[in-house]
Amino acid sequence: MPKHSRRYDAVAERIEPDKLYQPEEAIDLLKELANTKFDETMEIHIRTGADPRHADQMVREVAVLPHGLGKQIRVLVFTSGEGADIARQAGADYVGDDDLIAQIEGGWVDFEVGLATPEIMPKIGKLGRVLGRRGLMPNPRTGTMVQPRDLGRVIEESKGGRVEYRTDRTAIIHCSFGKASFDTGLLLENLAVLIDSIVRARPAAVKGVFLRSAYITSSMGPSIPLELSALQALRPD
User: Fold this and answer.
1) At residue 11, does pLDDT exceed 80?
2) Which of 82, 103, 116, 164 could staple 138 via S-S, CB 3.0–4.6 A?
3) pLDDT tens across 201-217, in order?
4) CB-based contacts of 180: which residues, under 8 Å, 6+ apart?
């Protein structure tokens, strides 16, 4: 068993063993327990019934959280010509093609969202080994391969509350949904949109129960188990 700090053990004692918490109750408790010197990120971890060994059971989607993530998001856009002008006007942090490709091949990856227009996709295929494992590789499935006319909207969403989630090799989805400093109501609204998106993203090939367990936690806090029916009952406005 891993050893935890005395602070962690002290806050973990506040969580009742074998209890499944209502989402609002769990968020209130987690906010109270997030007592570090920085604004901790709120995360949800969901075990699914998908079998990630099968491509038709992989879950990979995006959701736009109405109240954002509470942090600065740096957006990189692989594009040229008109697309470059649109991306810069929309507030993208890094815009280019061959120059950015060379930087990334050299090991630079200081951004949180990667977008690309279709004509650049063949050029960046070689970056898959670097960007793919970090979830930064533009992909038409997740809406990060973008037509120039849509760049403004997607950049705005990315800097706001756009999050990408996917099942890992153990069929678990890990995703942030805000900061501990957010009001409980705002966190619940973000969580409602995220859960609605995940339920809608259920692959047809998954049989039986899709969401099997769910826990929320903060960056430095213990995890709190959620009552699944209450979690799935959350509805976005």
Assistant:
1) no
2) 116
3) 999 999 999 999 999 99
4) 30, 31, 34, 39, 40, 41, 42, 218
Q: The dihedral of CA 147, 148, 150, 153: what is its sign?
A: positive
Give the three-class secondary structure for 226: strand
DSSP string, 101-122: HHHHHTT----SEEEE-GGGHH
Assigned token pair, 142: 């997740």
User: Is residue 86 exposed (0-12), middle (13-18) or buried (19+ Cβ within 10 Å)?
Assistant: buried
Please compute, for residue 80, the number of CA atoms within 13 A of its CA located in the half-sphere on the CB side. Answer: 10
Q: Which residues 6+ apart lie within 8 Å of 68 measured at CB? A: 160, 161, 178
Contacts with 34 (C-beta within 8 Å, 6 or more apart), sequence order: 40, 180, 218, 219, 220, 221
In angstroms, rounded to a whole number, what is the distance separating the alpha carbons of residues 65 and 186?
10
Here the tokens at position 162 are 């756009």
Give 36's pLDDT tier (boundaries 50, 70, 90).
Answer: confident
What pTM does this model have? 0.81
User: Is the per-residue pLDDT at 2 higher than 70?
Assistant: no
| Separation CA 178–CA 43 (nearest Å) | 8
Question: Across 68-197, where does the E strand assignment appear?
Answer: 75-78, 94-96, 113-116, 162-166, 172-179
* Type of residue numbered 73: I
